[in-house]
């Protein structure tokens, strides 16, 4: 019998599993280049994510196996058939009695990128029809997971040592509209099961859907176990441009949301997105956007130069010259970098939750009540803990905190976190029946994410043959892909 192992060296692999994003042209270009490289090295290839789902007939995808965005729970089957030399394409929509279902089941095994953080997708698809977006074409209309399933997943996560949960989807604000509920109803149920000191972070929500629940959302964002943070994309401060984008709100709606939350949730962090150079955007339209940024001084701002996505209505519109788009992007970036959002916080004493290591490996990364990034000394006893720090320095995107010497270090996790690479969601009984400890399944730096695509390298190995080994590695493969495919809106 043959099984699979994950290898850190992609060149040693027999098969590459490539995940993709269709939001921007550069992301798709990177995905295409990864496919070309795999072909040059004579690797078997399995493709996943939004690019092949949205455009399965592209020439560069011909003859390659594809897992659709709703079929990731069948990854083992697709990998096995591909290694045999077959081309498999699973792109269908899952339905129950004619009703469209969401993505993969929430109780499938997974490997967390960070054992302290659980990422839960609360719904797939969305209700909008933005003229620039290709993701809707790939992921379809809104399909929400039931509240009870989401709560059970959260409870299980805390039992596995998680101390922070991120809710994610294409639009968290639209949650529940297809199943007769709403986002506040879900959030009130979730906060009931969050341990003291553990935190919940909300994902991106578009303005139209949050407008209906402002009062309730303000109460939830003031909850001690919920970060006072919300990502609300505006995209443009011109009503004319918003109409062409089919964003279904006006600038006044966006301002109403922001003003209300800033008043009712003191200190809240509000992140937003801007698209520079959308078709038809005039200099006056752009200046309105500049004024909005100058007025609100968003501490977190995602500035995107418009890229026409093939097959979208916006791609057929009269385009703004490339040089103008580039210049507007530079101009807005200059405005964003002209202010320092955290200077006034120097000298404050804050409670922060430590969950990550900094990119340069010099600090641990923590977040305060407002999900602002605070760098703390790299003391191993701090990881996964709620600690008290004095802010002594600030930068554009972070603060630095010195731990208070006599302060208590609090452990929010109710049990020991899983080891890095250990499979989540498997009962001890199931492990015993397999006859193997799945916590020993190899975990590798080859499983990584970047803005464009992710790659997993698999190597065939001769096994002694009982099905338990095949099942265990198959589950690990499924778990790794589930971790790979989570879309997080920061």
From TrEMBL:
It catalyses: N(6)-L-threonylcarbamoyladenosine(37) in tRNA + (sulfur carrier)-SH + AH2 + 2 S-adenosyl-L-methionine = 2-methylsulfanyl-N(6)-L-threonylcarbamoyladenosine(37) in tRNA + (sulfur carrier)-H + 5'-deoxyadenosine + L-methionine + A + S-adenosyl-L-homocysteine + 2 H(+). Residues 1-84 form the MTTase N-terminal domain. Residues 112-343 form the Radical SAM core domain. Binds 1 or 2 [4Fe-4S] cluster. One cluster is coordinated with 3 cysteines and an exchangeable S-adenosyl-L-methionine. CDD domains: Radical_SAM (cd01335). Keywords: 4Fe-4S, Endoplasmic reticulum, Iron, Iron-sulfur, Membrane, Metal-binding, S-adenosyl-L-methionine, Transferase, Transmembrane, Transmembrane helix, tRNA processing. Its EC number is 2.8.4.5. GO terms for cellular component: endoplasmic reticulum membrane. The chain crosses the membrane at residues 468-489. Residues 343-405 form the TRAM domain. Catalyzes the methylthiolation of N6-threonylcarbamoyladenosine (t(6)A), leading to the formation of 2-methylthio-N6-threonylcarbamoyladenosine (ms(2)t(6)A) at position 37 in tRNAs that read codons beginning with adenine. Belongs to the methylthiotransferase family. CDKAL1 subfamily. This is tRNA-t(6)A37 methylthiotransferase.
């Amino acid at each position: 019998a043959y099984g699979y192992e994950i290898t850190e060296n992609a060149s040693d692999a027999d098969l590459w599993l490539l995940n993709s994003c269709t939001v921007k042209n550069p992301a798709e270009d990177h995905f295409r280049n990864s496919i070309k490289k795999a072909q040059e090295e004579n690797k078997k290839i399995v493709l996943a994510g939004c690019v092949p789902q949205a455009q399965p007939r592209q020439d560069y995808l011909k003859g390659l196996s594809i897992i659709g965005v709703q079929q990731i729970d069948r990854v083992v089957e697709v990998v096995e058939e591909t290694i045999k030399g077959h081309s498999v394409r699973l792109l269908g929509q899952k339905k129950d009695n004619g009703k469209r279902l969401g993505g993969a089941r929430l109780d499938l095994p997974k490997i967390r990128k960070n054992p302290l953080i659980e990422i839960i997708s609360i719904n797939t698809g969305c209700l909008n029809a933005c003229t620039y977006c290709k993701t809707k074409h790939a992921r379809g209309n809104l399909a929400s997971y039931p509240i009870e399933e989401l709560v059970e997943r959260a409870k299980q996560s805390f039992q596995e040592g998680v101390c922070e949960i991120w809710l994610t989807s294409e639009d968290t604000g639209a949650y529940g509209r297809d199943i007769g509920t709403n986002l506040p109803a879900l959030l009130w149920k979730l906060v009931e099961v969050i341990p003291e000191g553990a935190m919940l972070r909300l994902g991106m929500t578009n303005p139209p859907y949050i407008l209906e629940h402002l009062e309730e959302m303000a109460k939830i964002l003031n909850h001690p176990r919920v970060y006072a943070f919300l990502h609300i994309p505006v995209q443009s401060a011109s009503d004319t441009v918003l109409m062409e984008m089919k964003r279904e709100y006006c600038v006044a709606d966006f301002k109403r949301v922001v003003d209300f939350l800033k008043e009712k949730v003191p200190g809240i962090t509000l992140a937003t997105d801007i698209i520079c150079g959308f078709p038809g955007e005039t200099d006056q339209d752009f200046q309105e956007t500049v004024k909005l940024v100058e007025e609100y001084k968003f501490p977190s701002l995602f500035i995107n130069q418009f890229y026409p996505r093939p097959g979208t209505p916006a791609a057929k519109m009269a385009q703004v010259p490339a040089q103008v788009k580039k210049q507007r992007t530079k101009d807005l970036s200059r405005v964003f970098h002209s202010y320092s959002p955290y200077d006034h916080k120097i000298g404050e004493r804050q409670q922060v939750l430590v969950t990550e290591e900094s990119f340069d490996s010099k600090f641990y990364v923590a977040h305060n009540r407002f999900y602002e990034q605070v760098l703390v000394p790299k003391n191993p006893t701090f990881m996964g803990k709620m600690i008290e720090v004095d802010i002594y320095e600030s930068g554009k995107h972070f603060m630095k905190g010195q731990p208070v010497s006599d302060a208590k270090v609090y452990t929010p996790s109710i049990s020991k976190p899983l080891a890095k690479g250990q499979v989540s969601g498997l009962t001890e009984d199931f492990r015993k029946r397999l006859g193997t400890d799945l916590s020993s399944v190899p975990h590798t730096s080859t499983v990584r994410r970047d803005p464009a695509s992710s790659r997993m390298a698999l190597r065939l190995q001769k096994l002694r043959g009982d099905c338990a080994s095949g099942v265990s590695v198959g589950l690990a493969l499924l778990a790794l892909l589930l971790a790979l495919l989570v879309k997080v809106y920061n």
